[in-house]
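Fold in tokens:
===
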Amino acid sequence: MDLLERMAELRRERKPFAVATVVARRPPVSSHLGDRAIVFADGRMEGFIGGACSREIIRRQALEALQARYGRLVSIRPDGGGAAESSAEHVVVPMSCVSEGAVDIYVEPFVAARRLVVVGATPVAEALARLARALDYDVCRVVDAREHDDVAASDAAPGVTVATLDALETILKDGVENRVEQAAVVVSQGHYDEQALASILNADVFYVGLVASRKRGAMVRALLEEQGAPGAAAVRIPAGIDLGARTPAEVALSILAEIVQANPSGAPARSATAVAPVDAITAQQEIDPICGMTVNVATAQHTAEVDGQTYYFCCANCRATFLRDPRQYRIAT
């Protein structure tokens, strides 16, 4: 229950994390069925899923799962386990530590839902919000203060919030601070297009679209560029893939299709602050010269210094093997 409460707390705080659960094992291994650990976006771990070798493998796999936003089964096998069998959903990792056991660990990422900011009180905006909820987006409708009550009444549904235009910058800033991937579509039919886009273009948004004719869109873009708005050239005008859409629902579908195309599920997170880059975590690791496993430098318990160089080991046995004949390893490299 402590772990479940910790997960609930992290979800409330909208912090990204992954849960690793032991789902199968073949002795001898130190983990047991149901053992679990939380892996945070910066690579820290809480819990137990096995010894040092398994921990470092799962740390990296969890960070990759967080970036992809997709779960995966990680099978850790002795040498010859068949890494070639790996796929996106089932990763097979050979382990050359002393243990001849094997373990399967399911890694499930928990990340904040992508946010879609829909600006405008129009039929297309309403349809876009409705379809985006079906795709599990966190939807925020932004409208003029005079339109707020009417829109709030129609969009009173879980996962949809309604705010006024003067709160747009705060909403976008909140998304950046909480590491939420954000997309935004302006569909106000010219009422406050420029004002909304000026705020959106100053935020970390992976997709910006404007529902307007090409002629009006060109005028809006020119005005934004004149005002010095960053990224005005990247605004999709008109928003959406050309599907021959006519109805508000069809237009909304074309826009969501373009958003998915820009950042599909399973694609790495677009926000640079969403998850610590795997390479950044790897940079804090060294390779065990005996078994080839990665070792976290900051927490390494088994080290040895030879000729002024420090070596890191996953376990005491690897360290002892190395120290029996360090020159053999050095010659091999």
Summary: The first strand starts at residue 17 and ends at 26. The two ends are 48 Å apart (CA to CA).
